[in-house]
Design a protein that fits this description.
Strands 1-2 form a two-stranded antiparallel ribbon. The longest helix has 17 residues, at 17-33. Helices cover 20% and strands 7% of the residues. By secondary structure, it is of the alpha+beta class.
């Protein structure tokens, strides 16, 4: 039997298959416009163990030079983050 941590709920069927597929396509479009990047720790520059992207007017980034922050552009390409899907 699966035991979920406190505060976590499993809600099978909450999103229909069609809605799930549309959500996956939205995420794919965001990643295509703003490719995944590897953030780095402030001061040391050590790469984090994740790849990430953002959407909306500001995205969370971190690197050796600038530290933790929100910024309006992708840290590698310099292009604005894509809009948040509807």
């Amino acid at each position: 039997m699966l035991v979920l941590p406190k505060g976590v709920r499993h809600m099978p069927g909450y999103l229909s298959r069609a809605v799930q597929e549309a959500l996956v396509e939205d995420v794919r479009r965001v990643v295509q416009e703003a490719p995944l990047f590897v953030p780095a720790m402030p001061r040391t520059g050590k790469e984090m163990s994740v790849r990430m992207t953002n959407c909306g007017s500001l995205g969370w980034v971190t690197d050796k030079e600038g530290g933790y922050r929100y910024q309006p552009t992708h840290p590698v390409s310099g292009t604005p983050w894509p809009p948040i899907p509807d």
